[in-house]
User: Which sequence fits this backbone?
């Protein structure tokens, strides 16, 4: 089950993705008890992302997602719990990041820290460059604006 | 005085000789006027009386002549003395003139000496005044020096204050400049950095954070 969750989580990069995913799961949890004769992936057509719907279809066909509504509910509930346990990293950066770059960061965390993370990205041009990082109660400012302020303060002395 | 005596004696002898010659001449003239027959007798008589007569005559003449001679000698002497007096007077006048000259010279000399002395005194006075002036100058110099030192200290203090004020103001200006530079840099550098550099900076930030918090 964990491998299934991990596979699903791979698509979640940012906090927005996470929230959307949670929202979709909440929706699925609401849907699992309705029109149970219709496959789940069909029931959520137009209500979730198509990509996610395709994933659901695949998982339903493979039997990864149980057939009974209660089990489905439990599955999604577990998935939701799993997702909520994924640590979030707050990153304040100066530019609008590309999808590739976000994936690269996510990959970096996986490789360097051996864990999945959800990126809570804030774009703030005032920090000039670098990043302000907040992770599990820790806060580090590696922004260029801080370096510049430090430099200016030294020059002013 | 010896010359005068010699002169008087010479005059006296001269007068005496003249008298003798005159008497001899008169005697010859007197004999020439007497008759010829008495020539032999007279000649004898003359020869007998002649000497006493002559002596008597001479004596009388001498007696008569002596006062004249004395008078003449006296007159001569008076004249001589007058001349001498005149000469002496002239000499005295000359001497006086000389003395006058000498006196004038001496006075001139004295005047020069006085003038020199006066100059010396004046010079000494000037020197003294100079010394006093020097002393006064030294005092003024000291006062000036003291005043100059005070002024210099004040100037130095003022310059230091100005320098401090300048430094402070420059620091403020620098701070403002750096603030402005910072603000401008913050606004421009962020935009100037391309995306790949931004990405590198973020990865670097993560690398740094990894050592500390991840």
Assistant:
């Amino acid at each position: 089950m964990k491998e299934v969750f991990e596979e699903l989580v791979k698509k979640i990069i940012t906090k927005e993705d996470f929230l959307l995913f949670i929202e979709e799961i909440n929706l699925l949890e609401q849907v699992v008890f309705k029109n149970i004769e219709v496959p789940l992936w069909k029931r959520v057509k137009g209500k979730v992302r198509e990509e996610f719907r395709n994933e659901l279809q695949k998982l339903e066909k493979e039997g990864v997602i149980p057939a009974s509504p209660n089990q489905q509910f439990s599955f999604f509930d577990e998935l939701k719990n799993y997702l909520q346990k994924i640590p979030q990293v707050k990153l304040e950066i100066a530019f609008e990041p590309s999808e590739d770059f976000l994936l690269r960061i996510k990959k970096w965390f996986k490789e360097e820290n051996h864990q999945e993370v959800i990126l809570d990205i804030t774009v703030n041009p005032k920090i000039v460059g670098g990043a302000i990082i907040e992770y599990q109660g820790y806060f580090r400012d590696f922004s260029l604006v801080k370096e510049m302020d430090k430099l200016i303060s030294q020059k002013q002395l | 005085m010896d010359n005068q005596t010699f002169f008087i004696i010479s005059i006296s002898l001269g007068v005496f000789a003249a008298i003798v010659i005159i008497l001899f001449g008169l005697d010859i003239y007197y004999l020439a006027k007497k008759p010829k027959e008495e020539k032999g007798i007279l000649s004898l008589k003359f020869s007998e009386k002649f000497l006493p007569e002559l002596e008597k005559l001479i004596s009388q003449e001498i007696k008569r002549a002596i006062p004249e001679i004395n008078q003449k000698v006296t007159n001569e002497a008076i004249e001589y003395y007058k001349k001498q007096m005149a000469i002496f007077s002239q000499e005295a006048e000359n001497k006086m003139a000389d003395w006058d000259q000498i006196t004038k010279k001496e006075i001139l000399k004295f005047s020069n000496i006085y003038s020199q002395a006066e100059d010396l005194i004046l010079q000494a006075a000037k020197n003294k005044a100079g010394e006093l002036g020097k002393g006064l100058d030294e005092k003024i110099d000291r006062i000036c020096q003291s005043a100059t030192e005070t002024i210099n200290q004040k100037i130095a203090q003022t310059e230091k204050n100005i320098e401090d004020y300048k430094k402070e103001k420059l620091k403020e200006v620098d701070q403002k400049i750096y603030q402005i530079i910072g603000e401008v840099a913050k606004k421009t550098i962020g935009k100037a950095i391309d995306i790949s550099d931004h990405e590198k900076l973020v990865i670097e930030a993560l690398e740094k954070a990894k050592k500390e918090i991840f």
